[in-house]
Amino acid sequence: MLRKTPVILLIALLLSLSVAFTSACADEGKGGLFVNLTTDDTWAATKAIFFAHEKVLKAGYKPVAIWLNVRAVYLIDKKRASHTHGLMKEKGATVQDLLSAFIRDGGQVIACQACSKAAGLTLEDYIDGVVMGSPELVRGLLFDPNIKTLSW
């Protein structure tokens, strides 16, 4: 019986490691979310940011990216004041505050390069942590089979 004990312990250890590895892989397989945000309407933007951050990123889905294009690039301009609606208004958070918190928690905020240029904005005009988009970056997220797309 003593000879079998190490073998049984080894099998039990391997099984527990296998279960842990399978669980970790399942979590990694959750996929992510690509939010296409085109408006500078703060009500719509607040809803999009809140959903991406609080309901998706904090639930363990990765990567989670918000692509700001068309008029949405104005939301990340440091010089532009913004307000929020609904629940976020009660917290006193601005759109820039919400996006900064999203970035701190691991979310990715991408500014459309062409839209930024059309708006007369550069990366230096944006809040900290924003990444200037490129076709390769956006395509990499948009066409990843493990990432879903949602437009606002």
List keywords for this structure.
152 residues; Hypothetical Protein Ychn, Chain: A; 2 domains; globular
Compact overview of the structure:
The protein is α/β, with parallel strands linked by helices.
Please tell me about this protein's structure.
With 152 residues, the chain is an alpha/beta fold. The protein has two domains: 1-30; 31-151, Hypothetical Protein Ychn, Chain: A. The chain has six helices and five strands, in the order αβαβααβαβαβ. α2 runs parallel beside α4. The model is unreliable at 12-26 (pLDDT under 50).
Note the topology.
Layout: H1 4-28, E1 32-37, H2 42-56, E2 64-68, H3 86-91, H4 95-104, E3 108-111, H5 113-119, E4 131-132, H6 135-142, E5 147-151
Parallel strand pairs: 1-2, 1-5, 2-3, 3-4
